[in-house]
Amino acid sequence: xxxxxxxxxxxxxxxxxxxxxxxxxxxxxxxxxxxxxxxxxxxxxxxxxxxxxxxxxxxxxxxxxxxxxxxxxxxxxxxxxxxxxxxxxxxxxxxxxxxxxxxxxxxxxxxxxxxxx
Length: 117
Hints:
Oligomer: single chain
Shape: globular
Helix content: 25-40%
Number of strands: 6
CATH superfamily: NE0471-like N-terminal domain
Strand content: 15-25%
Number of domains: 1
CATH topology: NE0471 N-terminal domain-like
Radius of gyration: 16 Å
Largest sheet: 3 strands, antiparallel
Strand order of the largest sheet: 1-2-3
């Protein structure tokens, strides 16, 4: 993939590994808020399911979710993550793990290779 001249200057000032990681993220393509701090999600690879986030509601930055109207304001961010007006954002990979029950090394095989025995 070729980048247009000046593209690198417009990318976020984050390490290169962030850019590579972003390209591998399981992006959310549909989100529907449900009762009890759950989200009905669909991912770009066809996986669909419910993510139960009730264990987060009311804790730290997630205290804004105690207002059901705030939780329902969820939107899909530019990177396929989920964002709320209150500033909360959730990585789509973490949501993918919740929906599928997989572990990080299941979707990022390099984590298995890099693990020290």
